[in-house]
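Team,

Forwarding the record for the chain on the shared tracking sheet. I've put the sequence and predicted structure together so nobody has to dig through attachments.
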Amino acid sequence: MVACAQCSKPTEKALRDISESKSGKNFCSRSCAATYNNTHKTIGTRVSKLEIWLATKLVKLYPTIEFHFNRKDAINSELDIYLPNFDVAFELNGLFHYEPIYGPDKLAQIQNNDTRKFQACLERGIELCIIDTTSMQKFKEHKATKFLEVVCSVINKKTI
């Protein structure tokens, strides 16, 4: 009997399964393993190059503004860019939000999550700006500039 590394539920495991675990951790289900691994990963990221580039640019352009990048504290779901002092957030939606790249079920799941984010922002008085980034299939700084300009235009209207 071992405790699940995610939920601490006692789980029966064969001795050979315990010693063959890649991470040295034991889980009661695939779901717990995925949750644990996603929250404890040290390499790999789900943050796009565009998001990283925008974050770098925005903090330089607006050093006095508080930004939250890819945090879940505002609506209990990740927002790509959130400015808590202005109650405005930005979601950068690429092709996965509009086309069934991984099948119709995954697309429906993504779009349902997008709808829940929009509703959560609405309930908390957060203006959510959804930016379609499908035109940028590969990151190029000269293409990214137009998305920076969109974000800056909204921020500038809030700071006047």
